[in-house]
Design goal:
By secondary structure, the chain is of the alpha/beta class. It has a single domain, classed as L-arginine/glycine Amidinotransferase, Chain A, CATH 3.75.10.10. The protein has eleven helices and 21 strands. The protein has a four-stranded mixed β-sheet with strand order 1-5-6-7, covered by helices on one side. It has a four-stranded mixed β-sheet with strand order 4-3-2-21. The protein has a three-stranded mixed β-sheet with strand order 10-11-12. The longest helix is centred in the N-terminal third of the chain and has 13 residues.
């Protein structure tokens, strides 16, 4: 019996984030462990995020219950959002980081065009015990949308992959880090799998031809090296990457190594990417913990680019750089000082569902 065809063999690929969306998905916050002693302001940040997304696409929000949905509706109404643009889904969840726990949507350009779900396993970043409900989200989301799904099984084993650990240009190139996906001692996602294995998995399930491997992620990131706090595509040929000016900062050396490695990288067609530096905010510390504050955790919607800001002088510089790189979209700062206490911000919370057409 022949094995089933992979998504790539059927013509699917992971689109870039700037390609048209049908919707953005969010999980409405509820777990106090995500924002210890700071959960109260977080729904209002979500309200602002949803308010900026809704003009250009549907907002699909996962809630725990009827009462949870009612609370979300009150916040969204007070934030001035047209609730006709919002759809609610009642799924039990452990935490709010849908970028990592939800499906990774892939698209066949057709004809006919079609969107499907690549369903990877989620194990809470190989760190936390609570993840069984979140691990069911890809399958539940796929069923709710009535779309085709592909369970990510490779050589007889389910593959763990979080959406925040990768970034793509939609044409065959993917960014990721060795720290997150290749470390075999700390927060090990896929024991025994190396660089060639992961490249083959990316090719089969996401249509990726070319993997750009960076080294370590930023300090404070409890995912152990997610690339979306570090380095992102902004178009097919251009990549932004964080740099730290202070040589005494804990991030300085790792970011310089990544800067050098990126300059040696090639895209899927053999060309050299254009590379733009993003600043880092000054260290943000709460309750004695260095937080993963980064402007690279922006999210691209159909009409806007939402950028986390941190009451820092570098906020303006980061917004200006991204504004020049996205001239057709409004670049908007979202206050994220409270949000980052959850050890993630805008990109970590959101997941784009591509439009079929």
């Amino acid at each position: 019996m022949k094995p089933p065809k992979t998504p790539a063999e059927l013509g699917y690929r992971m689109p870039a984030e700037w390609e048209p969306h049908e919707a953005t998905w969010l999980v409405w916050p509820h777990n106090r462990k995500d924002w210890p002693a700071k959960l109260a302001p977080i729904p209002w940040v979500y309200g602002e995020i949803a308010r900026k997304i809704a003009p250009g696409e549907a907002v699909r929000i996962i809630v725990m219950s009827k009462a949870h949905e009612a609370g979300a509706r009150r916040v969204l109404e007070r934030a001035g959002i047209n609730l006709e643009k919002v759809q609610f889904f009642r799924f039990a969840t452990d935490r709010a980081w849908f970028r990592d726990s939800g499906p990774i949507f892939v698209k066949k350009d057709g004809p006919p065009a079609e969107v499907a779900a690549a369903n990877f396993r989620f194990n809470a970043w190989a760190k936390y015990a609570e993840y069984k409900r979140d691990n069911r989200l890809p399958e539940r989301t796929k069923k709710a949308l009535g779309m085709k799904g592909f369970k990510a099984v490779w050589e007889g084993r389910e593959i763990v992959l979080e959406g925040g650990s990768i970034d793509v240009n939609g044409r065959g190139s993917l960014l990721t880090t060795e720290e997150c996906l290749l470390d075999q001692k700390v927060q090990v996602r896929n024991p025994g799998l190396g660089r060639k294995d992961m490249a083959a998995i990316f090719a089969a399930f996401l249509g990726v031809k070319n993997v750009i491997w960076l080294g370590r992620g930023i300090v404070g990131d409890d995912t152990h090296g997610h690339v979306d706090d570090l380095c992102r595509f902004v178009n097919e040929k251009t990549i932004v990457i964080c740099r730290e000016k202070n040589p005494r900062d804990a991030n300085y050396r790792a970011l310089e190594v990544n800067w050098e490695r990126l300059h040696a990288a090639k895209l899927e067609d053999g060309s050299t990417p254009e590379i733009v530096a993003l600043p880092m905010p000054a260290p943000l510390v709460f309750d004695g913990l260095r937080l993963p504050a980064s402007y690279a955790n922006f999210y691209i919607t159909n009409t806007a680019v939402l950028v986390p800001t941190f009451n820092d002088p570098a906020d303006r510089l980061a917004l200006g750089i991204l504004g020049e790189l996205f001239p057709q979209r409004q670049v908007v700062g979202i206050h994220a000082v409270d949000l980052v206490w959850g050890l993630g911000t805008l990109h970590c919370l959101t997941q784009q569902q591509p439009a079929a057409r």
